[in-house]
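Recall the central idea of this unit: under ordinary conditions, the amino acid sequence of a chain determines the structure it adopts. In this exercise we apply that idea directly, starting from the sequence alone.
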Amino acid sequence: MALPRPHRFDVYIAVGGLLGGLLLVGIGLSTRPADDPVTLFDGPWPVLVPLTVLSGCELLRRAAPRTALLTGTLAVCADVVTQGNLSTVLMFTDVVYAAVLYGPLASARRIQWITGLLTVAGTLVPFAVWRVPEALLIGVVVGVVAYAPASTGWIVRNHRDAAEAARLRAEQTALLAEMDRAQAVTAERARMARELHDMVANHLSAIAIHSTAALSIDDPATSREALSVIRENSVDGLAEMRRLIGILRDGDDEPAAVPTLDGLAALVEGARANGLDVTLDASHDGTVPAPVELAAYRIVQESLTNALKHACPGPVTVSLAERNGALTVEVSSPYGDRDGPRAPGSGAGLVGMRERAALLGGTFDAGPEGPGGARWTVRATLPLREGVPE
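Accordingly, the structure predicted from this sequence is:
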C-alpha cells in the first residue's frame, strides 16, 4: 500500500537535518573521536548512512510514525558504532516525539513506558557494572534522547486532544443552541398561527355565510340583516387583527387582555347573533390556570366557528366541567348534510385545537357520535396542574 504524501513541514525538517549533518561532516565535527573503543567504523563516510536513513524517517514522521520510529531506532544504533553525527541524534529525538504525537494512542503509551524503562536501565545497569559516577551519564543521555521527547510528545498530544474536545463541545453546544432556536421559532410561528386562526376565523366564517345568504335570497329585509351581521363581524375581526399586529410589533408573549372562561357567555351570545342555537353549561371553581383558560376558550371558539360553517340546523351545546383534576371541554353540534350556505374549511382549526391540548399535556378528539353519527362532538381534557393523569 502506497504511503501518503509527506507533509510539507516534514520535508523541510528532513532536508534541514540532512544538510545540517552534511555540514557537520564537512567541517569534521562528530560526537566521538576516531579512537573511541565504541567506534567500529571510523572516518566521515560511515556516518552518512544513519544520517540519510534518519532523514528519510523524518519524511514519514506524520504519515507512518511507527515505521519511522522502528527504522530510526536501527539507524541511531548504527550511528553509535560510527564517529556519530549530532544531526542524526537530533532527528531521532524528533522521530520519537512525532511517534507519540501522531501515532495510535496505544503505541504512544507503550513508547512512554519503553523509553522510561530504558532510561532507568541506562542509569542503573552501567553504574552497577562500573561503579563510577560517570556511568550515570549514560542514563542521562538516554533520557534526553528518548524519554524527554516522548514525554514532550505526550504532553502536546494531551493538550491537542483537550483542545479538540473543547472545539467539538463548542460545536455541539452551538448546534444544540441553533436547534433550540429553530424549535423556538417554529413553536412561536405555530402559536401565532393558532391565535390568528382562532381570532379571525369566527368573524370571517360569519361574513362568508351571511354574504352568501344575502346574495342568494332576494329579500331586502334579509339582505339588510345579513349586511348588519357582516358589518359587525368585520369590525370585530378588524379589531382582533389590530390587536394581534400590536402583539407582534411590541414583542409581548400574550395580549394585555387574555381571553378567559368568563368571556364564554359573550362568545356564545356572538354565536347566537350569527344564527347558531347555542346553549352554555359551564361549571368551575374559578381556580383554572391562565394557559388552561386560554386553551379552553379557543377550543370553544373554534368549535363554534366550525359549527357555524358546517353544522346542520339544530341545537349546539357547550359544556365545561372539572373532573379528576382536569377541565373537560365538550362542544356538540348536529352533523349531516347541510342545505344552507357552507363556508369552506381547511382543517387547520382541528390541528390547532389538538396542538393546544397537547401543549398542556391533555387529550383531544373530534368526530361523529350518537345514533347514526348524528352529532359532531369535540372533546378536550386539559389538566389543571402538571402531573395530573389523563
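The chain is about 65% helix and 10% strand.
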